[in-house]
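quick one: magnesium ion bound model?
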Amino acid sequence: MGLFESRCGLSRLYRQEIIQSTMPTETIPRISKRTLDQLPVQGKKVLVRVDYNVPLSPEGKVTDDTRVRETLPTLEYLLNKGAAVILCAHLGRPKGKPVAQYSLKPAAACLESLIHKSIQMAPDCVGPAVQAIAKNLKPGQILLLENLRFHPEEEANDSAFAKSLASLADYFVQDAFGAVHRAHASTTGVPELLPSAAGLLLAKEIYFLSHAIQNPQRPFVAILGGAKVSDKIEVIESLIEKVDTLLVGGAMAYTFAKAQGISVGKSRVENDKIDLALSLLEKAKKRGIQFLLPIDRVIVQNVDPNAKAEITPSTTIPEGWEGVDIGPKTVQLFQKQLLNAKTIVWNGPMGIFEMPAFAKGTFAIAEFVAEATKKGATTIVGGGDSVAAVKQAGLGNQLSHVSTGGGASLEYLEGKDLPGIAALPNV
Ligand code: ADP
Ligand code: MG
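yep, here:
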């Protein structure tokens, strides 16, 4: 049995869990945007933008169905209210023309097995044939439109294309958090043309991320890591203004260490970001927040899963060696902060967690964040690799919120206005 079959075999169980544990109607998170419960959808057609940009095996099977599963609460909600549902999404980068490899058919098959209903697959996302199918769609039925990005007009936010999409339905529900940082036809064009609202997944994302940004309970601790300082400058700048403590690991920590004059051997450093790192450290000091960097590290001479690793007793890394994970003393230092926190935001792994020998630091942090959650903290993880790490640690369901949007969650934390959210009406 392939991964796809085994996951979808458990689907009924997952579905029950999702529906019972997360979002019964009466607990739809209150956000400043209109949510789908405020649309009179009975007997109507609802166009729902979903994030079905799923990973596929070479044979075209969905290898991780998380994104499809996450849309079930919204779909169940709309179907139960007597709506006909038209789904639209993108997959991969087909560059504005139909490419068989990027068809959404595998997503339709996956959704079918998760929701136990047959899903109609449209031959395209706009045009007369699609119009005709959509017109005949009955309440309780689901139609999945073909990849929006088979048309260059989607990413160009072309108004005629948005109009064609909007003409298929009476209402629009945005549930693709992973796409709302882009101003495309299906994120900003359509909501200008149809009465629109946030779906349950999007509402949950906004609820948790805005809590952290606008109204965090303290102590508020952010953990930042990952590959580069340059990817995360704006997040660091934004979080410095809000948190009580910043814990920094991953490769980005070496740029900060070098900025402080510490030798980091041949660890990954962005030399053109040293001045910036210094100014961020200065800013943190001025604000009086704790900015904690690793105090010991796991080092190797060559990055290789079987490399002989050593632990540096201090922050200094000898010549010819490079840091690949945070060390045990750092884990302890960070643990203390995390178990004391009331709000935690995490973006970026602590080391090269893809290699088991260098995953200990990241997994330990995941454990502490889960423990903090049990103690009542609100905990949020965002970022593609960080989320993958939390799931690999088996803790995906033990945090308050695991964000489905990598780029979008970063931009939200940066304090940016995301166009696909801004396009939805306020309440
Ligand atoms: P996210 O996707 O969660 O935002 P990033 O993409 O910024 O995270 O960073 C994840 C990558 O950073 C991982 O591939 C990981 O291997 C890498 N990384 C973390 N620590 C190190 C390190 N010490 N040296 C090299 N790469 C690292
Ligand atoms: Mg990444």
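The longest strand covers residues 45-49.
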